[in-house]
Task: structure prediction
Amino acid sequence: MKTLCMYVKDNYFFLESKDLELDGLRITNHNEVTYFEKHDIFTWKIAARTVANILTPNQEDRAFIYYGDPNNQISLNDITVNTVAPHNLTASVDGQLINLYVSLDNYLRFMWNQHPSARSYYKSAEVTNVSCINKDTIQLDIVIVSKVFPLKSIDMVISSRRDSTQEIFTVINSKYTKSNDDDYANVFYIKFKPSEVFPKLIHVFDYDDYNLSIFDYWFYIEINEHPLTKYKFRLPAPMNMFDSIWCHSSKTEILVLYWYKTQLGNFSNRIGVLKKDSFLRFESEKNKKNIHNHKPIILIVEYPHKAQDNGFLFFKYLMDTKKDFTPYYIISKHSKDLINLEKYMDNVLIYKSPEHIEKFFEADFLAHTHTPNYALPVLTTETIKKRDDLLKIFLQHGVIGMRNLEYLYGRKSNPTLINKFIVSSQRELNIVRDELFYPEEDIKLTGLARFDSLLQGNNRLKSFIFRKRILIMPTWRQNQELLTDEEFKKTEFYNAFSDLINDQNFRQFVVSNKMSVSLYLHHNFQKYNHLFHSDFVNIIESGTVSVQQLLKENGILITDYSSVGLDFAIQKRTVMYYQFDQKLMEQRDIEKEQSFLPGPIFKTKKELIHAIVHLKNNKLDKEYEDIIQKNIYAYSDTNACKRTYMVLKECQTLLTNQRLK
Result:
């Protein structure tokens, strides 16, 4: 392979080669041509001032290098490049830097008033090992392959996807090897203490709640020859992912890092924390074989701090009426909903407690309303394996239809999260089959457990009694839950609903008719409650009342895209859809499906308030009643829990057959 040596001396750029015939070596720019000088038989040089003379002052510009006839560029695809200490390929003219650099397409060029791209010198990266040293420090062994030159250093970045914070570590290159194809394998050892780093990256950490934080790994590269653009490379995941690693976090807590490969193939991790007593129970239980000498155990969970929805009502049904399973409900110790579980405390597992860990590893089934991960005390290699071994019934937290949720619950995107999928109508079954890609045998048309309570005692008289109570209950907007207060106040969502609950025409109607109005924000937006103010609308805080109670004790619902509109309509009460913004990115095109929603859609506040003022009563119109039976809830009874229980019995038979094989 031919060799080319490059260096800068006395503000001249030198190119030296015994292998290359560089006759007519020159630079061009803007139709100007300037030639290198012949320094000796093997060496050409050009003054930095000469290069600058054909570049545009005070602007980003570059010059191309040619030789021979016709124009040939110096391609580094088949040339070995060397530099001379101090390995500098930068000169200065009138305070502006000129760099002799390698372009993205691998040609040699001059550039000034800007930094060459880091991508020109990067080829690949790999995490080769992860270890815990001294019980409290993580070491990442990373090999980064660079082109043309070895790396001087890297800046490793750990960033929080949820909180948009980051921690940066600068590591000097101490070891590299050159391959036969002139690439450099640069080895870096990144060391950090999780107990010091991760608390800086998380704005709020609640030990007793599920931690949603995800941490991504990036890096910048530097070479000796010249400065590079601050291009941030993502660290790819290795072919075989590492096991989770435990580290001492404090005298009373142990922290675990769960490494995983993202859908795009990148390296990320989640963290978990256990008190020492729970960690010791975890260590004793994680490898135990389930002997199956007990009644089948089913774990039930909503959010770790919730007990008021489909999970709680199915748990209550099992506790009150069925004795052939042992149900356990998982909830955090500070939950306001613990009061709902007072009657059943012997079967309540406090989130992350030793008892939770023990029953988790003993369990056979899991019924969940959101992700099954909420049932896991921490995310680790062992708990993920146990999660995948459990037979899981997805109780849901709302009728599917308004949004396309394949990215969350689809079998293609998340093949191990759900075994049996509960639905409420044939239309919903079709959606889960065709858009979430579940086979029909895994989709069960039972209705949601909370429908039993919702319909219990519901009649025309109840609807009439609550006719003067209006509930405003919108859904959330993806990623807006990550905004600061000031950022959130600039959103369409905030401005639309803040404007609505302060509208004077609306206020006059409510006051003159002795009505009441309440606003209840989605769980993900509850932290913005304090930003909403009104002298005639009550802002309800989560935990003070259940969603089920709100739906039962209000006569009119105003929502936007939330599935609670479907629940509310089952009571045959008026639902109004206020869709002031562009449709959500994951929303179905409901405007083309006239029979989709059980209520009218309003695009402006004026239209909505006009409809409220002229509403004769809160009885659901006949056209929408027909939609309910056909497309929202196939039944009109209070047996959803009973039908869901039969799905659990089916899972029991399936599990028994699996164990007999």
